[in-house]
Amino acid sequence: MSTAILTGPPPAGSSLEEDLRSLGFDVRVAADVAGALAAVPATERVAVVDHRFVGHVHALRLALTDPRFPAGATEGALTVQPDARASLTRALTGPDDGASLPGLLAARLEADGVPVHRPDLGVLVAAVPDGGELRAKALAETEAVDDEAVRLRSAVKSRDGFFTTFCISPYSRYLARWCARRGLTPNQVTTASLLTALIAAGCAATGTRGGFVAAGALLLFSFVLDCTDGQLARYSLQYSTLGAWLDATFDRAKEYAFYAGLALGASRGGGHDDVWALALGAMVLMTCRHVVDFAFNEANHDATANTSPTAALSGRLDSVGWTVWVRRMIVLPIGERWALIAVLTALTTPRTVFYVLLIGCAFAACYTTAGRVLRSLTRKARRTDRAAQALADLADSGPVAEAAAGSLGRTVPGRAYSAPFWALLAAACLLIGPLLTGSGGTWRAVLQAVVYAVFAGVAVAQPLKGPLDWLVPPVFRGAEYGMILGLAAQSGAPGALPAAFGLVAAVAYHHYDTVYRIRGGTGAPPHRLVRAIGGHEGRVLAVTIAAALWHGRGFTIALTVLAAAIALVVLSESIRFWVSSGAPAVHDETGEPA
């Protein structure tokens, strides 16, 4: 239970006490706020509210109940979490200058180093009127605005894709409200979305036309629930670290599980079509595209002098309404992508689904990457140590690359474009030989993997602060995943491609987990974890050696064992972290395509 302390008895007819109780507060009226505060258990959230407050209930909800911030305030109301209680006690000891007490306390908290969140209320009213005439005016302004309508609108992301904005959110927000009124939590809705997507994947795996139609419909419903969970979190301000983890990881799990279901269905259908290579290729392409997004954003979000003619052109295009939606659609964000997959699954074959998906996502990846390269080449930006460390963490270098960086890498002079050059050279050494000469599964491929590991170490030997250094992590991801796909496809071993799909899925989870930890400001996973699973170059060496040592089912078994081991280690550490008290509440409010 949270406690709200009113600075005095509210005026006659005021609904303030009732409003605070509806938000879950135990309301106490006390002229001596310091004494009332001392009587509240130190483990509880506490709010101080001016008894003259006039405004919307949702204004109080936004200011007083958001769990993501140590303190929150609006005109006439202040709240602090238990961690900031000591600062609030100190703030109460200062002189009273006659102003509204919550506003005075908020200023003193900030002076004491406590960040105070002040939500943007928009048209919502929050006021402390002094006198009957001003109070009547504030009450009239409150009555003129429907705060429930505002609450529903604000439950939807301010920036989202075309399909989500116009085909899902107009009704999913009402589903979110229905869930809130029945006490459902965002985590429960997220889990329901995952289960629905897994059932959809199971329907696709039947290989029948009826199964494919059901799979498409269920995938769309899963996406509706996926939108609803975030809208429910914003509608009811139910944010949690566990919810952040579930939301960050389940989208990828749902999509990639559906790929696997389509591949199983194709093999079991009347044509017995083997599309596992296409399914794995789609997962590789999608993951690499996400790594491009993450690496570019981490490299530039806190860069100084971050200007570019290309960015200015993009801003001018965004000022023309129709170009905004066209540009959001052509990058195939999650809404458009899932709608495309669902419709094609119901009407066509799994092979057609993957062909269209690969072509569309390849175009989107080229479009976004080319734009970011142009921005990086034309902007004058100085990147921070934090950005360089984030890129180094995303590179996922293991012991072999670290040894190469500390030896050979120290002798290679650093240049502006050295890191992406050595990364691309490493990828070329790893992939071009097996693709052109068919050397996959031989000891020559192992030698090429050793060269890859050495060059990869040289690429990260210097701080990654160059204009294009954000390309290093996605190049490593493409090289590692592409090598696994290539070796599994060339081997012809029964079950090798499904086993490779599982291996890439386990490794990709580790890379997504790294991204969301960095986004939350807690840094990458412990380096012992990276060492335990070998780093990207260690896994490349392990798979190429396995391909050279074992053929046929032996290679499939090796891939399966490696996938299971990595999944066990990575998931154990990830679950331990995300349920711990130190996990960040990472919530995507940007609406960036996923």
Automatic annotation (TrEMBL):
**Which Pfam families does this entry report, sorted A to Z?**
CDP-OH_P_transf, DUF5941
Keyword Transmembrane helix (UniProt):
yes
Which Gene Ontology terms of cellular component type are present? membrane
Keyword Transmembrane attributed: yes
Q: Which residues are the signal sequence here?
A: none
For this UniProt record, the keywords arranged alphabetically read as follows: Membrane, Transferase, Transmembrane, Transmembrane helix
Chain segments annotated as transmembrane: 353-374, 416-436, 482-509, 550-571
Q: Which BP terms does GO give this entry?
A: phospholipid biosynthetic process
Residue ranges of domain DUF5941 in the record: 385-594
PROSITE patterns referenced in this protein's UniProt entry, alphabetically: CDP_ALCOHOL_P_TRANSF
The similarity annotation says: Belongs to the CDP-alcohol phosphatidyltransferase class-I family.
Protein name, per record: Transferase
